[in-house]
Specification:
4 helices, alpha+beta, about 130 residues, Ribosomal Protein S5, domain 2, elongated
C-alpha cells in the first residue's frame, strides 16, 4: 500500500496529509471529517479537489492539522490534498490548477508596528 504525503499552508494553519488507497475516509487529528469540521461549507472546501477529479471514494486521507482558525485550516487542507493528488498522478495538475487549488494563498498577518495601536492604525493626531 503506497502512502503519499504532502503539506499545505494557509495563514497560520499547517496541514500534513497522508493519502493511501481506500474507501474515501478522511481523518483529521484522529477525528472524522464531519466531527472536526461540522460546517457543510468547510467540508465542501476540503473535498473540492477530490470531487473535481471524481476520486472522493478511492483514497483514505489521514491529516495532522494545527494552527490558525477553522477556515484557514480547511483551505490549508484543500491545498495539501491537491498537492498529494498531483504527486499520485501528475496529469491531474492542469485540472486542479485551473480551479485554483494548487495556488498557495500567500497573505499573512502584517506585524504590529511600535508606537502604533495596530499594524496600520495610528493614534489620533492632535495639532494642539
Amino acid at each position: 500500500m503506497e502512502v503519499t504525503n504532502a503539506l499545505g499552508r494557509r495563514k497560520a494553519a499547517v496541514a500534513r496529509v497522508y493519502v493511501s488507497q481506500g474507501s474515501g475516509k478522511i481523518t483529521i487529528n484522529k477525528k472524522d471529517l464531519a466531527v472536526y469540521f461540522p460546517s457543510g461549507v468547510l467540508q465542501y472546501i476540503v473535498k473540492q479537489p477530490l470531487n473535481k477529479l471524481g476520486v472522493a471514494e478511492s483514497y483514505d486521507i489521514k491529516v495532522n492539522l494545527n494552527g490558525g482558525g477553522i477556515k484557514g485550516q480547511a483551505e490549508a487542507l484543500r491545498l495539501a490534498i491537491a498537492r498529494a493528488l498531483v504527486k499520485i498522478n501528475p496529469e491531474d495538475k492542469p485540472a486542479l490548477k485551473s480551479e485554483g487549488f494548487m495556488t498557495r494563498d500567500p497573505r499573512e498577518v502584517e506585524r504590529k508596528k511600535p508606537g502604533q495601536p495596530k499594524a496600520r492604525r495610528r493614534f489620533q493626531f492632535s495639532k494642539r
